[in-house]
Structures are given as C-alpha cells and as structure tokens.
Amino acid sequence: MSQQKIDQQRIGLVAGTILVAVAILVGMMVFYIMQRHAENLLRQTLQTSLQNHVDIAQSEIRGGFEKGLTVATRPLLINQIEYANTHSGDNATLTVLTKAAQSFLSTGLTAISLFDAQGKEVAHAGAFLRKPALSVPVSTVGHTQILYSNQFFLRTDVNMVKAGRVVGRVITETPLPTLSSMFKSVERSGKTAELALCASTGANQMQCFPTTLTHHIFTLAKRSPTGAPLPMTHALEGETGFVIAQDYRHQEVVAAYSPVDDLGLGMVLKMDSAELYAPIWSQLRYLLPLIVAMLAIALLLLRWLLTPLVTELVRSEREARAANVRLRDSENRVRMLLDNVDEGIVSISSNGRIELFNPGAERMFNYRSADILGENISILMPEPYRSEHDQYLERYLQTGESHVIGTAREVAAQRSNGETFPMELRVSEFSLDGQRMFIGIMRDITERKATEEKIIHLAHFDALTDLPNRRLVQDRTQQTIAWARRADAQFAVMFIDLDKFKSINDTLGHNVGDQLLQRVAQRLIESLRAEDTVGRQGGDEFIVLLASLSAAEDSAVVAQKILSALSAPFVINGQDLRTGASIGIAVYPQDGEDVETLLKNSDTAMYHAKEAGRSNYQFFAQTMNAAAAERLLLESSLRQAIDRNQLLLHYQPLVNIADGRIVATEALVRWNHPELGLISPARFIPIAEDSGVIIPLGDWVLRRACYQLKQWREQGIPLQRMVVNLSPRQFRQKHLVQTFTQVLKETGVDPHWLGLEVTESVIMENPEEAIGILCELKALGIELSLDDFGTGYSSLSYLKRFPIDKLKIDQSFVRDITTDPDDEGMVAAIIVMAHQLSIRVVAEGVETEAQLAFLRGQGCDEYQGYYFSRPLPADELDTTSVAAC
Ligand SMILES: Nc1nc2c(ncn2[C@@H]2O[C@H](COP(=O)(O)O[C@H]3[C@@H](O)[C@H](n4cnc5c(=O)[nH]c(N)nc54)O[C@@H]3COP(=O)(O)O)[C@@H](O)[C@H]2O)c(=O)[nH]1
Fold this sequence. Notes:
Blueprint: H1 3-72, H2 75-86, H3 91-105, E1 111-116, E2 121-126, E3 134-138, E4 143-148, E5 152-162, E6 165-175, H4 177-186, E7 194-200, E8 205-208, E9 218-222, H5 231-236, E10 241-246, E11 252-260, E12 265-272, H6 273-340, E13 344-349, E14 354-357, H7 359-365, H8 369-372, H9 385-399, E15 408-414, E16 420-432, E17 435-444, H10 446-460, H11 470-487, E18 490-498, H12 501-508, H13 510-527, E19 533-538, E20 541-549, H14 554-567, E21 570-572, E22 575-577, E23 581-588, H15 595-611, E24 617-619, H16 624-641, E25 647-656, E26 662-673, E27 677-679, H17 681-691, H18 694-714, E28 721-725, H19 728-732, H20 736-747, E29 754-759, H21 760-764, H22 767-780, E30 783-789, H23 796-801, E31 806-809, H24 811-814, H25 821-836, E32 840-844, H26 849-858, E33 862-864
Parallel strand pairs: 23-24, 26-28, 28-29, 29-30, 30-31, 31-32, 32-33
Antiparallel strand pairs: 1-2, 1-6, 3-4, 4-5, 5-6, 7-8, 7-12, 8-9, 10-11, 11-12, 13-14, 13-17, 15-16, 16-17, 18-20, 18-23, 19-20, 21-22, 25-26, 25-33, 26-27
Helix pairs in contact: 1-6, 2-3, 12-13, 13-14, 16-17, 18-20, 20-22
The structure holds ligand LFPHGCPZ.
Residues 652, 666, 668-669, 680-682, 685, 701, 725, 727, 757, 787-788, 811, 844-847, 864-866, 871 line the site of ligand LFPHGCPZ.
C-alpha cells in the first residue's frame, strides 16, 4: 500500500474517530441535559404531588379534629353534662345526651362517647374501633390519635370546659376516607410509587402506617437503618425537600419529603430511581439509533466530502514535508557552505548590527561569532572608516548612494588585535521578512596584495641588484624630461658598461658574476645623490640619471667619481676582482629630447669610451652616430651577404713545428662587401654574433670548409684536417651536434678530418653543459681546440675535465715572447701544463723565426702565423708541404 493511501486512511480514521467522539459527547450531553430536565420535572411533580397529599391529609386531620372539638364545645351538651354531674342517674338527662350523641353520627362521626367529670360514660353512639392495627398520637390539643384499621380514623379526646372548669369529656372517632383513598391513588402513579405517613416515636424511631407498596405497618422502625437517614427522617425533623437515597428496602429511590403541618407527622412520596428514569432511558432507546444513523450519515458525508480534501491535504502535506526536507537539506548545505568557505561572510541589519558571522570571518578577524553578534559592523573597520560608517549607512538607506553595494572593492579591515589588512569586499542588499539587510563576502587579500606588490616590484626592479630595471629607468627618464622641459633645466643620462665582466663571469662562474654586479650596484648608489637614479639596463650595463645639472660638464665629475669607485678591487669569495667601466654621457636637451635618443646616444658614447681604451668616459658627439650608423648598415647587409654570395673563406695552415709540414688549415671567413670592399671578420663577426646572423653564417662556413677539404682530397692533396671556429652563440644553439652530423654526412667528410676551435668564454659560460656537448662532438671523432688561451681567467682545474685535444696560445702572448720575459714564462708554463694533461699546444700569430725558435725550444707542437702563411683563398694556398695522412 502506498504511503499516500496509508496517510489518507490515517487521516480518515482520525477524522472519523473525532466525529464519533464528538457525536458521543454531544449525545451524552443531550442525554445529561434531558436527564437533568426530566429529573427536575419529576422532582417538581413529586414535590407538588406530595404537597397536595400533605395538604389533603392535613386538612382532613384538622377537619376530624374540628368535628370532635365541635362536639366538646356544644353548650347544650356541656350544660347537660354539668347537670348529669350533679344529678347522677337522671334518665332524662341521659336520654338527652344519648340523643344528642346519636345526632352527631350524622355529621360523619362513626362513634361518640360522652363522659362526666368523674370520667363515667354518660352516653355514647356508634361503635369505636376495638383493636386498631396502629394508633399514632397527633400533636394537637387534647389527646388525638390517628388510627388505622384498613382505613384511617381520627380519634379525638377533648375535655368539655365551662367557665374554665372541666365538666366532662367527649371522645369521637371520625373516618379519614380521603387519606385512605390518597394512599390508594398513589399506587396509580407508578409500580414503585409509595406514599408513607409516619410519626416520630422517640430519638431514632418512628412508626408508620401501611405503605402503598408493601401494605406493611411499621410499628417501631429505625429512622436510619443503614446509618444513612431515610427520607422520612428529614420529614420527621420538620424538613421539606427532595433526596435520592436508599429506602428501608435498600433500594435507591427518588423521594420528596415533608412534615404534615405541626402534627408530628411526616409524609414521604417516593419512587424507585429505576422506574423514575425509565422514561429517559426509553427515550435513549429511540435516540441512540437516531444518533447512530445520523453518525453513519455524517461519516458517509465525511468520507464523500473529505476524501478529495484528504487526498489534497495528504498530497500537499507530503509536498510540504518534501519541501521541508529540501529546505532543511538546503539549509544544511548553506550552513556547510557558510562553515567551510574560506571567505568571510557577514550579514548586518539595516542599523548596522552584525547578525551572521561565519567561521571564515572568525578566522579572518579573529573574533568569535558569539562575541561579535549584535555589535556594529564598524568594529571590523579601522579609522577613519569606523567613525564614518554609521553616517554612510544612513545616507545609503535614505538616498541609495553607495560605492560598495554590488561591486567588489578593496577596503581596509581591522582584526580584533587592531592589525589592519587589505580585504576584498562585495556587499549585496536583500530583504528578509520586510527588513532591509546586507550581506558582505570578504576575502583577506594580504597575500595577494603582497604578491601583486612583488610582481609590480619585479616588473620595475632588477631581481639581482634591486635597482630600477630598463622599463622603470625609461619611465623615470621620461618624467625627468617632462620636468626638465618645464623647468628649462638639463640633466644627463650615463650608460655604464663594465669592462672585463664577461671574462670574470665566464671563467669564475655566474655566481661570482652576480655577486660582482650586486657590489657594483651598491658602489654606484653610494657614488650618487638620492635624487639621482641608478638602474640596471641588463647584463653588465647600468644607467644613471643625473637629475639636475647646472652645467653639462658637472656630469664628468660624477663619471670620474664612478670610475674611481669601480676601480677599487671587489673581494668576492676571497678573491680580489678588478673591473673597470666605460661610461657614455648624453645630456638633455642637446644630445636628445626623448628617452630613446638619450639612451641610444649615451650607449654610442659608451662604445666610444670602450674603444678609447676602457675605464674612461665619453660625452656623446654627433660624429659618434656615424660609427653606430655604419654598424647598423653592416648588420642589415650582413643578413643578405650569404644569399648574395658575398662571403668567402681564406685558409691559414697550422704547421707541425717538428717537421714543418701542414697538419691542418683554419677556415677564416671574409666578407667581400660590394661598396666597402673586403671586410675583416674582426668587424663583422661581433655584429653577426649580437644579431644572431652568426648561426646561418657559421653553417655556411662549416659547409663551405668541408666541401673545400673534400675537394682538396679529391685533388690528391692529403690535408689531414680542416679547422673551423665556433662562436659562443653557435655553441649554445640547441641542435649543434645534429647540425654537424648532418653537414658532415652531406659533404661526405669524415668527422676525424674536422677540427673545431672554441674560446674559453664559450665553455666557461656553463661548464657542465659545455663538457657534455664537447664530449658528444669528441665522440663523433672531431678534434677540439681551445682558442685564445690565456686571455680569460683560464681555469686549470676545468681544463682537466674538458675533452680538449689542443690548446691555442693567444697571439698576444706569442707576439712578445722574444722580448717580454713575462710572456716567455707564461707561454713556457702553458706548454708544460698542457703537455702534463696530454694536450697538444698550438701557438698562433707566429710572425718571426725567433718566435718559432723559442716555441720549438719549449716543445710547442704546432704553430700558425704569417711567418708560414697569411690566410689565403684556397687556390692561392701553397699545399706542397701538406703532411701525408
Ligand atoms: N666564429 C668565427 N670566427 C671567425 C671566423 N673567421 C674568422 N673568425 C674570427 O675572426 C677573428 C679575426 O680573424 P682574422 O681577421 O681572420 O684573423 C685571423 C688571422 O688572420 C690572424 N693571424 C694569423 N696569423 C697571424 C699573424 O702572424 N699575425 C697577426 N697579426 N695575425 C695573424 O689571427 C686570426 C686567427 O684567429 P683564431 O681564430 O684565434 O685562430 C678571429 O678571432 C677569428 O677567430 C669564422 O668563420 N667564424
């Protein structure tokens, strides 16, 4: 059975039960009211009836007594008796008295006796009751008795008085027929109707005439046989009333009682309760089926009318229950959400009092919900917002003006300990039970703000030195230009580039290089005024803005100060490091009126300072731009040089010192510019390196050199090896090894025929990675040479780890080996050291016999230089002394 059906039945059952209960209750009330009404009616009837009987009995008894009194007060009789008293035996008198007595029988008396003063009967008529079943004295004048012998009689015994003297007495008996018939008539009132007439015979005793019901005479009966007084007891005590009590038969009766005048008699008219209430019960017999029938009809109507209602009720009740469950569920979810979200959620009433404070808010503000509920929301705000809040809220409520409602805002908030913090706040207004309320969703953005500030800082400051970066320097330059334009002032931009930094970085590693840059930054700051700006342009380049200059020449003083500051050694990791700086100065407005020009011109000036011998400064001059322009021209035309076939290779032999035979040739690139003529690689290789053109250029050199080697070999010139230079940028390219493998395969050159020259700086930039790449190249069979050895901070410990075959002593050492003992010693030491590491040594730049002799003497393995041959085109090279493979 479905739940709905069960619910319907349950509601039907409850409604039916209520209906039946109500019907029974109403029935019982109706019955009770009817019973009370009938009871009152019966009581009144019973009491009225009793009163009638009492009145009748009283009147008849009084009537009987009056008759006896009438006889006793007759003057004739009194006189005759008086006479008889004195004339005892006087027959005439006796005859008169007898006739008189007899005459009274016609008045209703049944017997009459006359007595003289001595008590002697002098006349009588009629017959007195001999042995009455009951005689009861009546409280009245004389001796009066009620007698019973199948019917009631009244016997009076009255003195005859004349002039205050008793002259005789008269006894009369009168039947009381009405009283007798009254008892009979009561029998018709009901089967249990009973009229009782009793007289008191002492404290707790009475005697009663035969009752209607039992016809029994109670000569000496107790007034309270069971302890509870009989109804007659009340009557004999002179009370009139109505009682439900037990009678002498121990039956429950409804009785009316009353005394009979002041005759010392009591009368009770009673009826058994059962008989009395019988009509009511009989009514109930009719009423009950009627009620049941009506009830049945009501139930049917109930079912007919109620079923659709109940169905609807059950359905809506189920829906309501389901909705309740959903609501509870939803409330639980909302509660869980409120409890578990990171955001603080706080709601306030329209007077600003806090009404909800979720755990997120507790954590955020460090208040317990229980402590803060009811407080003004301004407690969560720092000054001055705290003082202004109430006014603000009031204004919003009146005008609707708000900067907060509906939009997320960053505001300042305050924790319980007074700490303020940034908070993101979104406030919404809603209405609950007609009340305007506000809910705020809050997020502590302390970390986000710190991160944002960090990001902003990182975006504007150099991570290593914490100096303003390129962008910020440009911004500040822009601002300074705006200020200088307004103030008609001038200022200087200094472009500072460290000397030798690259070598230090390459040889001693990035860590040392970084520390050096930080120290340089520090010294620059210390050399300048607070209003000046020092920033890092990138790498080892710094920019200084000299904010206010009275004369352009003043910047020279500052430049000199910087140069002196930087010339002092830097002690890093226990080592004394020295670096100088080259400074280019451009002055606003004469050297540029915008940021870009000023920076470009200061950079140009810096290059000139470098070219002028480093560790000095140069003011910008317009002529400098010509050199820069040439550099730009070279850079742009270099990109087309490969395609336009403007590049060519010259080859310079490497000669075995021991036998004077060529063991290899070095390929050296040349640029045959259509307008500028043959350009030295010393001019364009750095531009190619800076601009990235070195990658396609290097590929071209490698491929061209390999083809030449292949060609020579095919021509029968048994050249052992072709050597090519590898620039730093080439070395760093991703697929270096694959490129080499590909070109060797393409040109058909055995890797063992190829030699590569790399500089120390190439390797020292990232030694670990470099070792890996060199090992891969070495594994192919390529011979590796370390070029320009001695010019950098050559690290012998690293040298051991490099898979190097040859070491080329830089020509700057070779140049003076015959004249400079330092160089002599240096070259000798390099040769010894290299040999100890099983590395062959090549000396480059050998121009004289003396130089060669020295090198031979030191055990140098090979040499290269003008002494043997300048770099020459392939077809001009003398290959006659090429060593056989
Ligand atoms: N990455 C590449 N670099 C290259 C390539 N071709 C050349 N270069 C590098 O350019 C620099 C200048 O080279 P260059 O002008 O060719 O000078 C070389 C020789 O001509 C010169 N040399 C040789 N012998 C003497 C001598 O007796 N006296 C003297 N004054 N100069 C001499 O030395 C240069 C050889 O340099 P090195 O490579 O160190 O052996 C130079 O650095 C070249 O490396 C290229 O294709 N790629």
